[in-house]
Structures are given as C-alpha cells and as structure tokens.
Amino acid sequence: MELVVFLVAGGACIAGALGVVLNSNPVHAALSLVGTLFGIAVLFVAQEANFLAAVQVIVYAGAIVVLFLFVLMLLGVDRAEDLSIEPLGGGQRIAAGVVGLGVLALPLLAMHATGWEVTGAGARPGDRNLLDDTSPDVAQLGESLFTTYLFAFEVTSVLLVIAVVGAVVLARKVKRADYVADPLVAAHNDALAEVAEPTDEISESEPVPS
Amino acid sequence: MMLAVAEVTPAWYLILGSILFAIGSVGLLVRRNPLVMFMCVELMLNAVTLTFVTFSRMLDDIDGQTVVVFVLVVAAAEVVVGLGIIVALLRKQPAATADDINVLKG
Questions:
Q1: Per the CB < 8 Å rule, is B53 touching A49?
Q2: How far apart are the first and last CA of chain A?
Q3: Which pTM was predicted?
Q4: Any chain B CB within 8 A of the CB of A41?
C-alpha cells in the first residue's frame, strides 16, 4: 500500500517538477508546481507528518502559488516564451545539465557510501522529542516549537515584519520628482498645514471643551 | 511481481528529494523568466523539506519537522519580497528577464 502511495505521489512530484522547468507558459508552470506541492503533501502524510501536510497544502498550494498566479495575471506576462532561444549562449544549458547531474550524484553517492541506510544520533531515549504513536505530531511539534525553539520562533516574527515592510517599500516606489505630485502626499501636507494654522471655520465648529 | 514485494525504505524518499532538488537547480540555471526561476527555488525548498521530514521519521526525532515549519515561514517571507522585486522589474520593462535586473538600479 505504501508502495502505491509512494509511486503515485512521487510520480506526481517529478512530473510537476519537470512541468515547471519545461513549460513555456508561466501559468502552466505555476499549475505544475501545484502538482509537485500536492505530491509532497501526500508523502508527508505517508510519513506521519499530518500537520505539516495540511500546512503544506494551505500555505504553499493555497497561498504561495495563488500569489504567483496573481502576479502573472496582474502584469499580463502569461504568454508563452520561445524556449529554443539560448539566452546567454556558450553552451549554458549543457553546463546547467552537468551541474544538475553533479547535484544529483552527490547525495546519491553519499547514500551509496552508507549502504542506503541512514544512521545518526537521533533522539536520546527518555527525550521528549521522540516521535511516538501515543501523542499526535501536532502536540509534539508545538511543544518543540514553543520550548526548544522559542527564540527562533520569535525571530521569525521579526523576519515577517521585515518582509512586509520591504514589500510595501518595493510596491510604493515614489520618485523625488513625483513626490509632491502624489495625491496622498499632497493630502498629508494639507492636513499638516491645517493643524499648524487652523482656519476660523474649524475653530468655530469645534469649540474647545472647558 | 517484484514491485509487490518491494518495500518503501526511507532511502527512496531521500532519492526522490535529490531528484527534485536537481530538477529545481537545473531549472534555475536554464530558465530566464524571473517568475519561473522563483518557482524553481520553491521546488528546491520543497525537496529539502521532504528530506527533513524523512530524517525526522527515520531518526525518531520531531526536530526535523520543526525545521520544516521554519522553512515554510522563510519561504513565505522570501516570496513576498521576491515577488515585490519582480513586480517592480516587470513594471519598468514588461519583457524583462533575469539578465535585465540592473534596470532597477538607481
């Protein structure tokens, strides 16, 4: 049973990955990416990481791919490209293939050297981090996240704030010449002037409470 | 049938992760569309998370899954900033490739 699940999900993963690389239309590539992400979520379930499978579907397939498609549609770049054009020339694709084979061969050789069996320290007996069947993976994950990795968890909040600020700065790029012409800036300047020199109308309509 | 008796060992998952990572890295090197290159980076991240979950199960240690949570957070932040840069680039030059990213200078 596990074999069938692995073959189907793994096949979906690899087919989706090849689709991302080989599709000339970026929208099709994004949809192929969904196939890969979904296959990986299935493999997470097969390895008893149920919470991560749910998060994988919600965050990756649900949010990140939708963000990709949103940008594609917003900018109208959803046209097919001619993949036969060599962008840089000089056999860059051959070099990329060699690098890819090297990247693939390195972990395979490392696994072959250990006889395809993973050895490692693992969790010590009596450690609370043991993956046992008595407590669900969500409970163990939460405990690990909020005790051992609490500081790292807090730092990720800083990272998210930085990302949001960066996105706002990038999306709202105001040049120096356009700065005064910007309606928001003009409205802000008007409001500042009013506060500095209140007109008679305002002071009459809003009497100061005693 | 040989397939019927074959057992899925954790090494299979690691091999699958290696293949996905290699495909993602080749795509990153071959493609010039910044959005597709970004998708290839996501592919590589997912290959690594699959490997982490496999190690987590093999070594009976939840820490591998905790790392995956952090990878998800970093990936989300990375997508936000990266897509912001790509939107800024493609607004300036609608047919831009990764080689034209210097039009954002200044």
A1: yes
A2: 80
A3: 0.82
A4: no
